[in-house]
Amino acid sequence: MVSLSEALSLSDDARIVTAATPPYTIVHTNTAWSKITGYKFHEVVGKTPAFLQGPATELPALKELHAALASHDPRIQAI
């Protein structure tokens, strides 16, 4: 069996894993995600991804993300 860390490291794409229920706290990230955001896993574990939102966050994209989370839409992986 492959661990979550091993599975995430198989991809060069940035990946973040959150809890499946609100408040959707971060349970894992990979190295690519850390390189893109500048945050280390130990800095974000237990937080929600909302800390990444700022004044330049596009409202339509944010609404789509919230709707996908609320409906447990599997397309959330592509956002």
General description of the model:
There is one protein chain. With 79 residues, the protein is mainly alpha-helical. 38% of the residues lie in helices and 9% in strands. A two-stranded antiparallel ribbon has the order 1-2. Strand 1 (16-18) and strand 2 form a beta hairpin. The longest helix has 13 residues, at 59-71. It is globular. The mean pLDDT is 83.
| Structural class assignment | mainly alpha
Cα end-to-end separation: 28 Å
pLDDT averaged residue by residue: 83
Strand order of the largest sheet: 1-2
Q: How many helical stretches?
A: 4
What is the gyration radius calculated from CA atoms?
13 Å
DSSP helix fraction: 25-40%
Order of helix and strand elements from N to C terminus:
HEEHHH
Q: What is the global morphology?
A: globular
- Strand content is 5-15%
Oligomeric state as shown: single chain
Which runs of at least 5 residues are low in confidence (pLDDT < 50)?
Answer: none
Q: Note the main sheet.
A: 2 strands, antiparallel
In total, how many beta strands?
Answer: 2
